[in-house]
Structures are given as structure tokens and as C-alpha cells.
Amino acid sequence: MAAVTYLELLKLGGSEVLLVLAGLVVLLVDLAVMRDEPRQNRMLLAGAISAVGCFAAGLWALQDGITGRAFAGMLVIDRASQLVKVVLLMMTAATVALSVQGRFTRHVGEYFSLLLFSTVGMMLMVSTENILLLFVALEIASLSLYILTAFNEENPQADEAALKYFLFGGVAAAFLLFGLSVLYGLTGSLDLREIGAVLGQRGVDAGVAVAVVLVLVGFGFKVAAVPFHLWAPDAYVGAPTPVAALVASGSKVAAFFLLGKVLSTGFAEVAGSAAWHGVLSGWAPVLAVMACFSLLLGNLAAIAQKRLKRLLAYSAVGHAGYMLVGAMALAGATDRGRALAMVVFYAATYGFTTIGAFGVAAAMERAGESDRIDGFAGLSSRAPVMSFCLMIFLLSLAGIPPLVGFAGKFFLFGSALAAGPGLGLVWLVGFAIAMSAVALFYYLGVLKQAYVVPAGERAGTLTVQVSVILTLAVLTAVVLLLGLYPGLLLDPLTRALAVGM
Amino acid sequence: MIEKLASLLVLVPVLPLLAAAAIAVTKRPHRQRASTLAIGAMGLSCLIAVSAFLAIAGAPEERLVRNFDWLHIGNTTIQLGWMLDPLSAAMAAMVSFVGLLIFIFSKGYMAHDENYTRFFGFLALFGAAMLGLVIANSLLLLFICWELVGLASYLLIGFWFHKPEAAAAAKKAFITTRVGDMGLLLGMVWLHAATGTLTFYTEGGEGCLQAGALDSLGAAGLTARLIAPATLIALLLFCGAAGKSGQVPLHVWLPDAMEGPTPVSALIHAATMVAAGVFLMARVFPLLEVGAAMHGESHSVVTPALTVITWVGAFTALFAAFIAVAQNDIKRILAYSTVSQLGYMFLGLGAGGVAVGMFHLLTHAFFKALLFLGAGSVIHGCHEEQDIRYMGGVRRWMPVTFATYAVGMMALSGVPLFFSGFWSKDEILHAAHGWPVSHIPFLMGSLGAVLTAFYMTRQVCYVFFGPQRSREGADHGKAAHPHESPRVMTMPLVILATFAVGLGIFGTPAWPWAQSFLEGEHAHLAFGHLFSGEVLAVMGTSLVCVAFGIGAGWWFYGRQPISSAARPDALEERFTPVFVALKNRLYVDELYEATVIRFNALAARFFDVVDRWILGGAVAVIGYLVVGFAWIGRFLEDHGVNAGFDLGCRGIRRGAGAGAALQDGRVHNYLRALGIGFATLLLLMTWGCH
Amino acid sequence: MGFVFPLIATLTVLGAVGAMSFRKSIHAALSLVVALLGIAVTYLGLGAEFIALVQVLVYVGAVAILVVFVMQLTRSEGGQGEGMAVRPAALGVGTAGLVCGGLISCVVLLPDFRTPWPEKADVGLARLGEALTGDYVVALEGIGLLLTVAIIGAVLIALKRPNKEETPE
Amino acid sequence: MAPLHQYLLLSALLFGIGLAGVLTRRNGLITLMGIELMLNAANLNFIAFWRHSPNPEAIEGVLLTMFAIGVAAAEVAVGLALVIAIYRRYRSVNLDEVDQLKG
């Protein structure tokens, strides 16, 4: 039974515990002490406490020697999961920084504590190999995000967005749970490793097929892959912009890490093949189809968008397609740890970049403008620093070297091609590369507005909040630095995952 | 010494990069500082590059590599680095030298532009990226620079972004070349997956262009049971090269890119960016040769990839030459001629190997830069006029420009013996003649040579001869004469003209120094080669071609002065009564001119009828054919390839609307999509079960 | 006893169908209660008495009451204005049928699942408690956090006053 | 009692019925009830599988069902709150009227 004492549990899950504590403190302080203060002060204090919480949790995660697999795979703490947690905490911290000078909610304490709780959910997602906790953690993260989406008092459509997000998520969760139940029925276990072992003996049959597809529906919702992406554009637009940034970044990183783990431990033996000359049943063809349509629809629909957040939403769908292509490499038996590292690297760097782009949208909204793309006209003269940051983010998203988006794509496609000759990923990689040419189209459209089109007459200089500009500057630095030295993140990630698998 | 220079070579791209960074923070009022920084940095780079070139000129078999570890990922290491070998040294020296001259020219040309500072910043960035590209010892580094070159050219072509055409052209250039780059990226990623490295050469022999990697690549089985992986990778890389170097059908961006400032056209379309594709193919030539079947007597290497390159090059050379005949914009003629010449380079590369293609690249860089800068000088002198129909007689007012332009024109046309273009093109035709697969590329190349001479003669006749034909109604009466450009602009012309003539002696069949150098060998003097039968035969052919082209050009355009801009093209004219074209002249003071011309023209017409049957029958018939083809080609270009590209863009847009329309706002439809999606995926999954 | 399961199952299915198709939403809610109770009885038959109890307490005791409460609050006597056009309804039912058919053909018909009824040790509350405080303690804490989140969120969203300036468009 | 596949049939039917309700009913509350039905179907699966698993000691199925019920309760709470918020804004719980975000 419990071979691990509760003390050890506190040690293993220290980051999560710290973050929960921080969340509760924020809630208490805000409700008890700061109740009658002006909103700006409340925001600042709550933001500061949250940031400290993230920092402390991150420090805890960076400690050496906290590794272990406790409670029958319920908690699997290794270097890789700790590293991903640090990335998640950085993203949450960036989200907090983007929020502190916002005006979208009066419920300050609740807002920040829910941000932290959703991060706890994501952190639990990355540190479990048990489908019970997998489900619970997914729900913690999702439920907090549904609620956070409804927080936006500036946007009358926030409730609609939250309801759509919720209903879609609820149905997807039901599919996922049903899939997990079939998985349990087939294998008699909740532990992904044991599941993987049993499935390995069993091979692909109808029962496995249905379980795999059901589970992939749940993940497809979480990562916003076609056709399970339909909530994403609406939710991104309705949610408070920093929350949308977190949905696009942290949530995606956690989901892809977890998906990678499920695919490489639980479903390792039922991959099948997506080669066009010999499709074999398994998750590979399913993911291939999802990836293909995500790439196509995400990149095409983004072209038609008039608002930055909606454009980013569709581009997020497209990027989910790239990451799914990378996840396909897990089908090859050669070096799964490395393949997963590439996916996580891409997701993490994409997350940082997209938070930055959302930050620009937030700044525009905060300055009393909307995120309409034609409102970006003349941004280079109205807010030179911010428009420079925007340029870096968008070019990185488009995959222009030497920014990090290029490095991510390069390694991602490389791992997909190296995964094995029998997998037939070449057509998929080719398609992904072709779609990234299309993607340039709409990113350049935004940049054209910012840099080429002159500002309207009444448009003066934009005032951008200090917190926002600092966050953007830090994120720009990250994008540039990781672009020049991808090894800073990629190397530890690869090492950690190589050990972990 | 050479060791030290190899290490110093990294400064060649770094110096302009630093200059670009410094200019980026330079305030607008300090205009001179910006140009001084850029020119100074480029000058230093040029110095280093030329010394490196001279150092390795004595030891062409050397290849010095400088690699450093960029990344450790798990247990693999990715190296970046640069190298000094004949190819990189020649390219670096050429690019930095031509670049320096263009920078200096820009100082005069852009003197009155309000964004002078920014222009030099972009130029320096472009120079840095291009120089980084040529010395890169890693396909990855090369690709990074390659994309930076694309980005910088996007900024430069769209420099006058207040012109909507310029903005559109910049976007078109960026996106079209990106289409090619996608192939390059895929090829690169694949190469990495197949060989595990992207470093070209290492001292230990683990590079992807060295025997070990190539052997394993050659031994690999067919991909998808169809095609050898080496061939596929080579063709993917060629996609990128074709995009950058404007090969059909990815050439659509190049003529449009003429919207940028003229020095930019010179920089991008003459010496550097467009040549990058040819350079890339030359760099990865060992990869193209994998699995080659050697053909005994003609030392030609034939592989599927090289065959494709040869055909594409030959087709482009001819196709673009046809179109150039029917253009009226001075820069667009040069742009199509560039496309055509790039086709020649690929033809040479595919049929004859690195040296043949690269030698033409080097000579072309000089004389085409000369022509573009000359055109810039003409445009500058004629008050921003670009339509050759409204020029004329410029020879009288711009003697230096005329003289240098004539040199460039003759080099491009391939006038024998004294001009570098003759020797390099002759080399290509020679290679094509000896190509064991087919003789058709040789015929296409020869026909292209005729056309080249023809359209260049036409252009020169229009621009420099005949009366002045400035735009009517603009400010006639005291119509401003064209004026000669300042020295800062003519000096580069003179220097380039010198090289356009002088480079030829390094590449004659008697002493093929340049070719041997590029192949990494020492050259031997052998006059006997010059008189071997085959060489003479090919030389004779190209001589006939050039003479015929220039003769025909003169026949149609030079024999009688082109009097009026409104007059249709000389060939069209013969079908329509002359006075129809002239009756628009309403002003009395032009009546005299009109009657004289009318008389002249009628008389000329009379003699022509006689002439045509006695002397120029054949010339005329072929001339009609040429013009017919040219117009058909232009029609195809405007309504086929180019329209196809635009149509594709529009199609994407429409698809975008359709994609977005899927999102109709009803949550029920979202959920239905989820259900249907699940059911479909389940069907897919169970397809192969049981 | 062979007739008990088919009876309960039929009742449950009928309840579910009613819950999803009654026009008046209060009828639907009551019908849902029937279905949920049917499931609870099925749990009993399967020997999971504790789960049956939880099912009754949570679903019938809390969820259903809450649903009815919200129904009163929103006075949404369903049906009005809900003239279901034939096509979308057919599409929805068709999709659901497809999914259901897929599940049945893939899972139910699997030979594995025709196993005989094995002997089973009784799940005492003690063993459940032991597991909850042992291996499953992390999940227990997780669910605690989840409920906290839900309470904060539900209270906040339900009590949120719309801003003055925002009006439904 | 009955063999395993009968339980699975029941749960599959419940899942399908719940999904059909979600996909056809425009009343937000009933959509919510449909989701609950789908979750219940999955729970029934877990219990049925648990009871039929050969290992008499294993109790994972029961535990997972308990947790799933908790999750479902949390979801219902949030969902109902969202329905109330929607009702407050649109004076209706008809989901078809909630379609301002699109494109």
C-alpha cells in the first residue's frame, strides 16, 4: 500500500502545494484585507502574491533530487516533468504580468487564484501516469479555464464564449471518460504503463480502436485540433486576453506533454502507420488526419480574420497541426524521448511567442482600442517598441530564421522524418511545410498594417502599460535567445526525456 | 597566412551586420554617418574577402573549415561554421566587391530620399546575410542566411512602400521565394534525417557532402518505391534554388520586384540574391552527383537531378528571352534577361558541372550589375522615366553611361573575344553541346543567344539612339535634357565595365583558370585547345548567333531612328499605315516634324518592300516569328503563369472565407462536428481492423 | 432474478429517452431522475452499494434538485419556441446513432466481454477509505481542489451583475 | 446477474441517448442533462468492468467512478451557473440565440 509517506508526498508535489497555497492566500488577502481598496491596488497585490507563488513553485521544481514514481504511477516526478512545470509556471507568471493592469474584472482575488489553480491542474497533468489523475487534472485545468473565460466584464460575449467552451469541453470530457472506461475494461488497470503492456500483447482490435479514438477526442479538444477546435476561436475572443494567452500556451504545453506520454507509454504498441501506401490501423492515421485538417483549416481560416485574437486562435489550430505532426514521430520506436522533447520544445516556444502576441492585443484593448487588425495601422510610429515586439513574435510564429519558431519547426520536422521510413510521414511533413508558407500570408498582413499603412489622423501615441511592455520585452528576449541558442531549453529537455523513457 | 585568413573570413559577414545594427540606432539626421558606416564595413569585408581569394588562388585544392558546436541535443551535436574554398572565396570576393560598388552608387542615387538612413541599414543587412550565405559551411546556417536574404530583399523591394505596387511586389517576392524555400526546408530536414548532419565538410570527414554520408545516401533504397532519396533531396533543394533564382514557373516575382530602387535591383537581380540559387546548387553539387553514370568521352555527369536542372535551365533561358523581346520597361527587360541568364547558369551547371555554371554566374554578376546601374543612371538622368519608348538619344547627354552600358550590352549579348560574357556563355553552350542526353538544350541555348543579342540591341537602339522622345505634354518646349550622373555614380560603372571586359581572359578554353580554380585544380596553359574542332565549331555557332541577333536588332530598330514614342514597335508598324500612328499629332509646331517623318517613313516603307524581298527576307520572316513568339510568351506570362499565381492567391483567400464560415456561432453545430468527427475517425481507425 | 436487469435497463433507457425528449423541461428533469435512479439500482445489482449510495446522494439529491432549481430560476418552461426543425434534429440523432452504433459494434460485440461472472471480494468502506488515503490521496486532493474551483466559479458566475453599459445586442 | 455485454449495451445506449439530446435540444439545461447522462454511461462502464474483472482485489473501477461523480458534480455546478448568466443576458436559455461569436 502506501509505501510513500505523506511527507514525501509533500516533497514530490511541493510545487503544486506551494501554488495552491499561493492561490488560497491571494483569495484570503483579497477578500479579507483589500476589499475596499481601489481595484488597481488589489490587482497589483494579488498579482505580486501570485508571481511570488509561481516563483517559489518554480524554485521547488528546479531542486535536484526530487524524483520518484509514487502511488502506482499517480505521481511521476522526474526531471522532464519538473522542467515542463517550470515552463508552465513561467507562462502563468507572464499571464499574471499581463493581467495586473487590466480592467476586465472586479473579482480580483478569485481571478488570480483561479489562474493559479488552473496551473496546478496543468502541473498535475504533466506529472501523472495514471488515467484517474489524468482525468481529474484535465478537469481541474479545464474547469478553471471555463470559469476564467466568463470573467471578462469588458466583453458582453464572455458568457457566450464560456458556455460554448464549457459545453464543448463537457462533451469532450464525456468522450474521454468513456474511452478511459473502455481502456480500463480491456486492461484492468489505470496505470498507463500496465495499460501499455497489455495493449502491446493485444494489438489493435475494435475495442482498442474505439478506446484510442475516444481518448484522442478528449485530447483533440484540449489541444484544439480539427474537428475538435470549434470552441477555440470563440473562447479566445470572449475570454479576457491574458486568459486566452494561457489557454493557447500553458494549457497546450501540458496537453501535448500528457498526450505524448499517453502515446508513448500507454499506446506505444498500437501506433499503426499513416503511410499513404499502406495505412495500418492505430492512432497514427487518426492523428495524421487530425493534423492534416488542422493545418489546412487553421491556416486558411486565419487569412479571413479581421481581428488579431481570432487570427491567433486559428493560427493556434494550425500550430496544433504542426505539433501533431511532431507527435506522430512517437509512432517510431527509435527514440521516443527525443521525439517528445521536440514536441514539447515546440509547444513551449510557441506558447511564449503566442503569449507575446496576445499581450499586444491586450495592450491595444487596454489603450481603448480593439484588436481589429486594421486598427494596427501605423503602430510602428504610435508604439515603436511594442510593434517591434509584435514583429518578432509574428515572424517567429511564421517560422522565419533565426527566430525560435524556425528552430522549433526544424527540429520538429526533423524528428518526424527521422522517426522511421515505414511511417510515411514525408507527405505530412511536406504538407505542413507547404501550409507554413500559407501562414506567412496572414502574419505579413498584420505586419503590413503595423509597418506600412500610415496611422489615421486622430490616432496619437499609444500608452502601453509598464507591466505589459516589460512582459513583452522579456518574451521577445526569450524568443530571440532561444532562436539563437535552442540548446538552452532543448538540450535539458532531451536529456531529461531520454532518461525518463 | 591562409590559415589566418580563413579564420578572419567570419568577419566578412559580421562587419556589415554590425554596421546594420549601428545604423539601426542612428538617428535620421546623421545621414552621412549611415552611408559611411555601410560603405566602410563593406569595404573592409571586401578587403578581407579579396585577400582570402588571392591567398587561395595559389592553392585551389585547399579547403579550410572552421566549425564550432552550436547545439548539444542529448547526445547529438549540431555544428555551424564557415569555410574557405575556391567557391566560397570567389563568391565572397565577387559579392563584397560588387556590393561595395553598388553601395557607393546608392550614395548618389538615393541622396534625396528621406529614408536614406534606413535604406543603408537594409542594404548592410542584406550584404551581411548574403555574405554569410556564401561562406556558410552548414546547410542550416546557409538556410538561415538564405531566409534573412529573403527578408532583407522583402524590405528593400518594398522600400518605397507608399507605392502600392512596391508593397505588392515585395509581398509577392517574399511569398513566391518562400514557396521554393519550403522545398529547400523539406530537403534540408530530410538530408538531416538521412545523414545526421548538415555540416558540409568537417576535418574528420563526417560532413554531409563527404564520401561517408554520400555513400550511405547512395546506398539507401528507393523512397516510396519510386525514387532514390538522394535524387529526391537534390530536387527538393533545387526547388529552393529555383525559387530564389527565378526559374520557371517560380520566376513570377522577379520582374515585379523591379518596383524597388534601382540599386536594389542591381544588388538583388545581378550579383547576389538571384545567384544564390545557382550557388546553392554548386555548393551541394556532390549531392547531385550521387549515383551518377559517367559518360566516357565527354566527362559529363548525368543523374536524374542534374537532368531536371538542365531542362529547367534551358527552358527558362529560352522562355524569358522571348518575353524580354516584348517589354518596354528598361528594368523589366533586364529582369527577364536575368531570368534567362540564370537559366543559362543552371543549364551550364546541369550539363557541365560546377565550374561552367559558376563562371557564368561570376561574369554575369559584373556585367548585369553594370547594366542595372547603367539603367539606374539613365533613369536618374531622364527624370525617373523607365519606359524606353520615351527615351532616345541619351547617348549625346550621357556619354559615360552610354559607353559603359554598351560594354555591358555586348558582354551580355556575347560579342566575341573581348567580352567576358562571350567566354562564359560559350562554355555553357559547349557543355550543352556535349551533353549526352539530348541536343535540344543546346539548340534552345543557341536560340536564346540570338534573342539575347536581339533584345539588347533593341533596347540600346531605343534608349541611346534616335531623337529624344520625352513624354508629350509634360514640359515640352524647354524639355529638360537628360543629364549625366555625378561621379559617385559613374565611377562604379567604369569599374564594373572594366571587369566585364577583363574577366574573360581568366576563362578562355586556352587557359581555363577560373574553371579549374572553381573545380579546385591548377590550370594549364594550352593554346591547342582553342583550335580543336569542337571548340571552334561551338564558338562559330555562338558567333553566328550573336551576329544574327545583333544584325536583326539593328535591322528592325537601328536602321532608321525611332522617331516617336507613340509609334508602335518597329515590327508591328509594318502592318499599319504609318500616318495612322502619327495623326494624333495636333500641334502646329509639330506639324513640320510630322510631315518630314511621314515622308521619311513612306519612303522607308517603299524601300523596305524592295529591301525585304531582296536582302532581308529571311531576317524579316524570322523576326516576325520572334516577335510573334515573344508576344505569345508575354501573353502566357501575363495571363498564364502570373495570373495563375494571382489566381492561386485569390483561391486561398476564398478557401479562407469558406474555412471561417464553418464557424457559424451555433454551439450545436460545433457539437455535431465533434460527433461526426469522432464517428469518421472511428471508421478510419477500424478500417484496417480484424 | 434473470428478469430484474432487463427490467431496470429498460426503465433506465426509457427515463433517459424521456429526459432528452420531453418538451416541458420539468418533465425532462423528472425523467432524468428516473434514469439516474435506474443506474443506481444497476450499481446495487453489480455489488457496488457504496457507489449506488453516492449516485443517489449526488445525482438525485444534489444535481437533479439543482437543475430543477435553476429551471425555476430561469423560468425556462422548455418547449416554448423550441420548434425543432426536422433536419437538424435528424442530423443530431443520426450523428448520435452513428456514435452509439460505433460503440456497440466495437465494444459490446467484442468476445472478451462475454466473460462469466467472477467471484468478487466485497468492497468494504474500509478498503475504499484505505485506498483513498493511500494510493489515491493525490487524486483526492485534486478533486478537493476541483470542487473549490467549481464553488468559486459557480458563485461568481451566477451572482455576477452585468455591468450597466453592457446590454444584449 | 446479467453478462457483461448487456451492461455495456446499456451504457452505450445511454451514451448515445445523452449525445442525441445534446445535439438536438436547444434548451441549455437539457443539453447539460445530456452531458450528465453521457458521464453516467461511462461510470456504469467502470462499475461493470470492475465487477467482471478477474482480479477480486482490484477496486480501481469503483474509485474512478467515485471521482468521476465528483467531477461531474463540479461540472454541473459551473454549467448551471453559466446557464444562469446566459439567461440573465439573453432572457432565454435557447442556445440557438447565443450565436454572436462566429466567423
Entry summary:
The complex is a heterotetramer of chains A (501), B (690), C (169) and D (103). Chain C is mainly α and 169 residues long.
- Give the number of domains of chain C: 2
Beta-strand percentage range of chain A = under 5%
The biggest beta sheet of chain C reads: none
Q: Could you give me the name of the CATH homologous superfamily of the largest domain in chain C?
A: NADH-ubiquinone/plastoquinone oxidoreductase chain 6, subunit NuoJ
Integer-rounded radius of gyration of chain C: 21 Å
Mean of the pLDDT scores of chain C? Answer: 81
Biggest chain pair contact, residues each? C-D, 94 and 76 residues
Strand order of the largest sheet of chain A: 1-2
Largest sheet of chain A: 2 strands, antiparallel
Question: Roughly what is the average pLDDT of chain A, rounded to an integer?
Answer: 89
Gyration radius of chain A (Cα, Å) is: 22 Å
- Briefly note the structural class of the backbone of chain C: mainly alpha
Would you mind describing this structure in some detail?
- The complex is a heterotetramer of chains A (501), B (690), C (169) and D (103).
- Chain A has 21 helices and two strands.
- With 501 residues, chain A is an all-alpha fold.
- In chain A, α15 runs antiparallel to α18 (404-418).
- The two termini of chain A are 25 Å apart.
- Chain B contains 28 helices and four strands.
- Chain B has helices at 2-8, 11-24, 31-57, 86-109, 116-135, 139-157, 164-195, 211-219, 229-244, 253-256, 262-271, 273-283, 285-288, 304-325, 330-352, 354-381, 394-397, 399-413, 420-433, 440-464, 487-502, 513-519, 533-558, 570-573, 578-582, 591-614, 617-661, 667-687; strands at residues 64-73, 76-84, 293-295, 300-302.
- In chain B, 56% of the residues are buried.
- By secondary structure, chain C is mainly α.
- In chain C, α1 runs antiparallel to α2 (25-45) and α2 (25-45) packs antiparallel against α3.
- Helices cover 71% and strands 0% of the residues of chain C.
- Chain C is globular.
- Chain C folds into two domains: 1-78, Up-down Bundle (Four Helix Bundle (Hemerythrin (Met), subunit A)); 123-169.
- Chain D has 103 residues and is mostly helical.
